[in-house]
Amino acid sequence: MNQFQYVRATKPQGAIDAVAKDPTAKFIAGGTNLVDLMKRGIMTPQKLVDINRLPLAKIERQDKGLRLGALALNSAVANDALVRQHQPLLALALNAGASPQLRNMATVGGNMLQRTRCSYFYDLTMPCNKREPGSGCGALEGINRMHAIFGASDKCIAVHPSDMSVALVALDATVLVSGPKGDRRIAFADFHRLPGDTPEKDTNLEAGELITAVDIPDGPFTKHVHYQKVRERASYAFALVSTAAALDLDGNTIKAARLAMGGVAHKPWRLTAAEQSLVGQPATEASFRRAAEVAMQGAKAFKHNAYKLKLGPNTIVQALRTAAAA
Amino acid sequence: MKAQQKQIGAPMNRVDGHLKVTGAAKYSAEYELPGLVYAVLVGSTIAKGRLTSIEAKAAERAPGVLAVVTHYNSPKVPGYDTAGKDPSQPATVGGPIKIFNDDKIRFNDQPIAVVVADSWERARYAARLIKAQYAKEAHQTNLEDNKPQAFLPTSAKKNPKSPMADYQRGQADAYKTGAIKIEGEYVIPTEMHHPMEMQSITAHWEAPDRLTLYDKTQGTLATRRDFAKEWGLPEANVKVIATFVGGAFGNALHSWPHESAAIIAAKVVNRPVKLMLTREQMFTQVGYRPYTWQKLGMSATPDGKITAITHESIGQTSTYEEFTESTLAQTRMMYASPNLTTRYRLAALDIGSPIWMRGPGEATGAFALESAMDEMAHLLNLDPLEFRLRNYTDTDPEKNRPWSTKFLKECYKLGADRIGWSNRKLKPGSLRDGEWLVGYGMGVGTFGAHRGGAHASAQLRPDGTVLMQCATTDIGPGTGTAMTQIAADTLGIAPEKITFELGHSDYPQAGTQGGSSTVNSVGPAVQQACLALKDKLRELAGAQNPTFASAKKEDVTLGDKHLSLSSNTAARVPYSDLLKQAGAATVTVEAKPGNEGQQYSMYSFSVHFAEVRVHELTGEVRVSKLVSCADAGTIINEKTAANQMKGGAVGGIGMALMEHARIDDRFGRYVTKDLADYHVPVHADAPNIEVAFVNQPDLKVNALGTKGIGEIATIGVAPAIANAVFNATGKRVRELPITPDKLV
């Protein structure tokens, strides 16, 4: 096997130091993605810094919001009473992802940092700019039915696979990180990147920065929410397209809306223009359909994923419909 | 003595169930031998061309590495000179391709080297250090592009009566002139078997000319034959052990390159070598259901009588083997069409060889035929079940002879009642459940009730228990359990007293487990071995008690500790006396079919009814109800048989809705390389599947009356679901799988 060093961190600063000074080091939490990538030789860290013992697993009330520790397990978050009470959309999104076994291992921070599932990224013999910058994008002219319709570049058309992140971007979450230069807060929408010319960078985290928590502000989205995930089997599959929808209704009038899509871009795709188009409108099929049309502006399909141009808006309508009826 | 409860038909628990669920059952990867070392394959990264160099030095110097074998340094495999000269031989006879023999690359991921090390991790690490250079040649991996080059299989060229040859009754292509006709093209993409257990082999040269293989195989004797031939050894010098097989669905019906590699590696390092395939290698090393294009035309009279069918197909094969399957068989015999034409062709691609996958070609063909039946019924505005009844045949229209038995009408009745067929509307898109469109569909399946010769042995032990042995394997249907039930009834003793051992090439000979033939073939051998044992015991007892000498074997009763006679319970001989004198009481018998197969057409039949829900916006399909009914002759074990039907139906759901191995033709390489990309159904995809059996014996097949279940469990399921999707939505999907992108 590839030899690597394994150290267990007991304090956040120790973990940050260990990774900051060694460019070949990686944090490991649940390892549900990293270990697979290491087995396949796609990621070959020389050092693993195990952060599972760090005290970052709490889910707690903060001023006007919820704080999820970066090491809180996906299953713990999905089943947490506070989460279900204040942010039910997040629980729905989490439960749509992976399998119970994986959710019992995967953490909040790790879920955000999972790599794309693009087949070309996973095959060392095929071109992939994300894995090997400059080698080309295999998917661009290849089998691209799972790929992006928004924000892609000619360097990379991969999508981010997380369901949880789709809900978090819709809910205006903030990512808390600690690093060699201190602590900072990153708006969730700015956390993941579009591929541009540097698809090897999935996020705006800097070297040695550790995610410590995610804050979600309280909002009115405690009832009319839905996470609609369309996949090729009933469970345990990545989304063809997914939509997180949250509505604040006054009678049948939409006071506020949140919408984001998964399976369509290199990052969880927030649909602010479509949200705006819903404000003040009645919660009807026609309003939802109009919002879906707004949402799809600028979408561009490749050879095998043109179906997403139709499935995308339909999924938005279905998510809004279900949220309104919830 | 109280009569034993009848075991045949009873829902007996699996005899090895406890071993399996507790992890005590030993699968091929779990044998630990002294001095065992590990091998990992290195695959080519091009689909066609030549190897110009292999840089192995770094791997050879890596820690723990014992050997790196390539075509540059492989020992000469004696059988390579003679093997595989005739590509038209069935795949199982052709044996594996000759790996490490030359520089030729025939498919992507073809093994070009095997690394042996003292641990699997070290072997895998070293395997990644190997670098190869190639002279690439243009490859072909797309069947659609290669349809113009499709050819008649060699077996059909040699023998015009071959089932692969062109077939015609009545007028050729008569449907074209029919007034009411349909015509459509159907595609089944490449599908992968992916049993839970991945292929694994431990090869052990116990002496320079004695080889033992702990191997995942469906046929211990076929594997023995192939590797005895490859190494120029007498078959008696090769031992193959496959006590437990964790599913296979056909992919262990062939001898594969990784098996050759392990044997070569074991020869080189002169130690036992274990080689386990990864899930990724399962896509490239052990076969698949071939991508198949079909075209079916059909004409009918206004009152629903089929007047002509033409069914053509082009299946994928490799460049080094001609793999054929019976894609068009069901079309030739299922419906009473006076004019019928079938044409079967192959297209050779630069991909490894296919191998039969559950239901094999019949399941592929049934998708086209049973979809077309639905299309024609729709055109005629007829209920599809009624349309099938109007074209039902009481004799085989292909061979012009009687069926041995056929209870398909009974199956229709059983299934239609259970699914609630009367709820079905003729007009598509008529039924709804909220946002879900609801539809009903049916599909028929059939498969030959094949039977081959088989041997079995039976031995009475002094404690009154019976040991039975047979070389057959059990890839999951519960063969040992069914055989124990047959033996228990025949011997008149409790099943707990019987041990049925299988999966070892030293045991009495039997065929490979495949083609739904095991119970048909081995069942009679077990039955006859038990009768022979009774007779042998009667004879032995006769030496001590003359009453036995004149008794009939049927009267012989096996008690707890002694032998007696049902006609004379006073006559008793203790086993201890019986066996003290004789040493042991063992019989081995062979049971063979007669010429019934020439007089009758023998088939199992099934019908599957599906209720589906299709989401109006997302195009997701959920099978909400599935009913599978079979005419499979006598059911030996109601529980394992139903389990087999349900497993086959789940396979059919996968075929209908999600299974699709995709190749990027630019690289000639699969992009679906794990079970996250290649979807098989999860529990949530399977409804509660209802199974019903006609359970009428077919005594033409054998004295037990069995016909076989394995294939008909899958054949016809995919079209039932596709037809239900049409009924729900009015959309006819002729290219599987029916994923949301095709319905949205």
UniProtKB/TrEMBL annotation, chain A:
Residue ranges constituting the FAD-binding PCMH-type domain according to the UniProt record: 1-221
Taxonomic source organism: Hymenobacter setariae
Keywords: FAD, Flavoprotein
SUPFAM superfamilies tied to this protein: CO dehydrogenase flavoprotein C-terminal domain-like (SSF55447), FAD-binding/transporter-associated domain-like (SSF56176)
Gene Ontology molecular function: FAD binding; oxidoreductase activity
Keyword Cytoplasm: no
rRNA-binding listed as a keyword: no
InterPro entries cross-referenced by the UniProt entry: CO_DH_flav_C, CO_DH_flav_C_dom_sf, Diverse_Substr_Oxidored, FAD-bd_PCMH, FAD-bd_PCMH-like_sf, FAD-bd_PCMH_sub1, FAD-bd_PCMH_sub2, Mopterin_DH_FAD-bd
Pfam family, one: CO_deh_flav_C
Identification of the protein by name: Xanthine dehydrogenase family protein subunit M
Automatic annotation (TrEMBL), chain B:
Pfam families according to UniProt: Ald_Xan_dh_C (PF01315), MoCoBD_1 (PF02738), MoCoBD_2 (PF20256)
Domain Aldehyde oxidase/xanthine dehydrogenase a/b hammerhead as annotated: residue spans: 22-138
Annotated GO MF terms: iron ion binding; oxidoreductase activity
Keyword Transmembrane helix: no
Keywords: Molybdenum, Oxidoreductase
InterPro entries associated with the record: Ald_Oxase/Xan_DH_a/b, Ald_Oxase/Xan_DH_a/b_sf, Ald_Oxase/xanthine_DH-like, AldOxase/xan_DH_MoCoBD1, AldOxase/xan_DH_MoCoBD2, AldOxase/xan_DH_Mopterin-bd_sf
Name used for this protein in its record: Xanthine dehydrogenase family protein molybdopterin-binding subunit
Presence of keyword Nucleotide-binding: no
